[in-house]
Automatic annotation (TrEMBL):
Pfam families: NDK (PF00334). The gene is ndk. Its EC number is 2.7.4.6. Residues 2-137 form the Nucleoside diphosphate kinase-like domain. GO terms for cellular component: cytoplasm. This is Nucleoside diphosphate kinase. Its cofactor is Mg(2+). The active site is at residue 120. ATP binds at residues 10, 58, 86, 92, 103, 117. Major role in the synthesis of nucleoside triphosphates other than ATP. The ATP gamma phosphate is transferred to the NDP beta phosphate via a ping-pong mechanism, using a phosphorylated active-site intermediate. It is an enzyme of class 2 (transferase).
């Protein structure tokens, strides 16, 4: 059955002017755009969104990075969209993410303590429901 996922274009993607290209790739794959917003993160939203990473060495750099500029939040819908978007996004580390993926084509290591990897996509139906509630409330 059709499911929904939360996609974030992180501050690096927005500041580099890649939001439109990134959203266009998701639409071109055939997923339907359901909701869209330009938002500023807050520490509270990030703590809820990244609850499983709180306390990891990259958590504070990750928060600083996510607070560094506006974010595009989008909800996409379709059969297996969670898996489909993650495949389109590519591996977490942009240097070695496969060419053809969003991270592989547009991302690289910038020498910082956090992976600036352009996009986030929910990893399960439960995370998607939780995350859509955080960014669209
Ligand atoms: P995302 O998929 O949004 O989920 C957690 C984020 O933390 C991840 O993308 C990266 O931006 C960042 N991240 C994950 N693992 C590491 C790591 N080992 N070092 C630095 N940043 C990381």
């Amino acid at each position: 059955s059709a499911e929904r996922t939360l996609v974030l274009v992180k501050p690096d993607g927005v500041s580099r002017g890649l939001s439109g290209k990134i959203l266009a790739r998701v639409e071109a794959k055939g997923y339907r755009l359901i909701d869209l917003s330009l938002v500023s993160a807050t520490r509270e939203k990030l703590e809820a969104h990244y609850a499983e990473h709180v306390g990891k060495p990259f958590y504070e750099p990750l928060v600083e990075f996510m607070l560094s500029g506006p974010i595009v939040a989008a909800v996409f819908e379709g059969e297996r969209v969670i898996e489909g978007f993650r495949s389109l996004a590519g591996a977490t580390e942009p240097t070695t993410a496969a060419p053809g993926t969003i991270r592989g084509d547009f991302g690289r290591d910038w020498g910082l303590k956090v992976q600036q990897n352009l996009v986030h996509g929910s990893d399960s139906v439960e995370s998607a429901e939780k995350e859509i509630g955080i960014w669209f409330s």
